[in-house]
């Protein structure tokens, strides 16, 4: 069994808004969509984990974009996922992308997690239209000692 040692969540955009999109930049540039801080209170980091979940609403603007989502811990990339976003008006153009990452054996301290997006397909355009949410749940085994 595991117990919760920290939980943080943010929701920078609560609902879809096609009237106020912001462009997803082309690689190597990227946009930070959300940030949270998770605290691991004990030096012994064996068997703890931080479970991260992100949801991002995006819209295809031109062509079929490949959007690369990344999660960073303290500036170091720990996860990436890719999603194709079409802009063809005869099909869907709004997408909700949700992904989960698990960061294992995280060291003691407060850690900054950030989720980013970048468009890796030249000649295409995609935008964030919302919603955006990002949460992190730090857990440790029940027998894990506290300091």
DSSP strand tally: 9
Termini separation = 19 Å
Radius of gyration: 17 Å
Strand content: over 45%
Report the principal-axis shape.
Answer: elongated
**Helical stretch tally:** 0
Reported for the largest beta sheet, the result is: 5 strands, antiparallel
Helix amount: under 10%
Q: What's this model, at a glance?
A:
The chain is elongated and about 55 Å long.
Overview of the molecule:
This protein has a single domain, classed as Jelly Rolls (Sandwich). The two termini are 19 Å apart. Strands 1, 2, 4, 7 and 9 form a five-stranded antiparallel beta sheet that branches. Strands 3-8-5-6 form a four-stranded antiparallel beta sheet, with no helix packed on it. The protein is built from no helices and nine strands. It has 147 residues and is mainly β. β5 and β6 form a beta hairpin. The radius of gyration is 17 Å and the shape is elongated.
Set out the fold topology.
Elements (H helix, E strand, L loop, with lengths): L1 E12 L8 E2 L7 E10 L8 E14 L2 E9 L2 E10 L8 E11 L4 E11 L5 E17 L6
Antiparallel strand pairs: 1-9, 2-9, 3-8, 4-7, 4-9, 5-6, 5-8
């Amino acid at each position: 069994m595991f117990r919760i040692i920290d939980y943080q969540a943010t929701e920078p955009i609560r609902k879809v808004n096609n009237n106020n999109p912001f462009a997803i930049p082309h690689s190597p540039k990227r946009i930070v969509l959300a940030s949270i801080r998770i605290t691991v209170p004990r030096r012994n980091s064996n068997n703890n984990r931080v479970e991260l979940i992100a949801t991002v609403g995006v819209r295809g603007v031109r062509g079929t974009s490949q959007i690369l989502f990344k999660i960073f811990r303290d500036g170091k990339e720990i996860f990436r996922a890719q999603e194709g976003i079409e802009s063809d008006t005869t099909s869907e153009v709004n997408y909700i992308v949700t992904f989960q990452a698990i960061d294992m054996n995280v060291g003691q301290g407060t850690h900054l997690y950030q989720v980013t997006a970048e468009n890796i397909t030249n000649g295409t355009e995609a935008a964030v239209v919302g919603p955006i949410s990002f949460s992190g749940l730090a857990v440790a085994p029940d027998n894990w000692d506290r300091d």
